[in-house]
Hints:
With 353 residues, the protein is mostly helical. The chain has helices spanning 6-30, 35-59, 71-82, 86-97, 109-160, 165-201, 221-227, 232-244, 258-262, 265-280, 285-288, 293-319, 323-352. Helix 5 (109-160) runs antiparallel to helix 12 (293-319) and helix 7 (221-227) crosses helix 8. The longest helix has 52 residues, at 109-160. The protein is flat. The N and C termini lie far apart (85 Å).
Amino acid sequence: MAAPTPSTIRRWRKYLADERAEAAVYRDLASRRTGEERDILLALAEAEARHEAHWLALLGDNVGRPHAGEIRTRALGWLARRFGSVFVLALAQRAEARSPYEGDIDATPAMAADERIHEEVVRGLATRGRNRLSGTFRAAVFGANDGLVSNLALVLGIGATGVSTPIILATGLAGLLAGALSMGAGEFVSIRSQRELLAASDPNPETRSALPHLDVDANELSLVYRARGMDENAAVAHAAEVLRDLSVDHSAGDTVDEHEEIGSALGAAVSSFLFFASGAIIPVLPYLFGLQGLAAVVLSSALVGVALLGTGAVTGLLSGGPPLKRALRQLAIGFGAAGATYLLGLAFGVSAA
Length: 353
């Protein structure tokens, strides 16, 4: 075997450092979890250790001093040690998806396959976290974005008509309060209605008391399971098993807690109110501090732009998508809406003059 070139050695050392850093991320995440999730994360760390051993074997005496992994991998480790949240898992999911092993002749096919599987494992763990916070988080993100965009559009649109600064300020504050109340009330009604619909679809626990009195030959219990989605043969077999032993759990198919994914009505309403208000106050800040005219418009737009980039990036991270792309998309949508309202305000201002 020919001696590796300096560039090859550097590439192997980089892979070695990345594997060590990724294993450390999974161990740090595991230290903040218990039960099955902890075991899964430790198993991922062990898999990264096998990859580390591969690069160590190739490097031999050329290992050299330990190198730091990529900046984003080290940043993941820092976040994992301090937060260990779904955000870190979402970032780890993206990191696994960027594995270079499929196109590297020195990585084995098994290693490339491992990285593909790791992406799906981390995706599954991240999905658990997303489901736990999806209701309240959705209300918070949508509330903040609605507050940012709607109040910026309102302030710019009214300002473009040429009215005085006090009127712009009053309009912005009124828009903040009205929008926050509307968002909070809307989220409460929406989530409460969803939970009530789900509750109406849940099996009635009192029905179990009727099971000992059912006609075994008619086996009408099988109709329950067929209505829940089982095919006829499976439903008949399961119903017969339940009637033979009433200690068997007969709630087949009801393993998903949809209530948890939706969140609580009060939590969603409060989050929506607070985050809409926090977003809606940003376009008003320059006017609160006495700025007027073009200076106030520019500063208000700049502040909202930064906030939109932040919320877009966070949404992108949580969804496992590219944060920069999501941030720019959020910015374009927000500024597009505000720009259209500003132009409309200019048109009204000219016609009123």
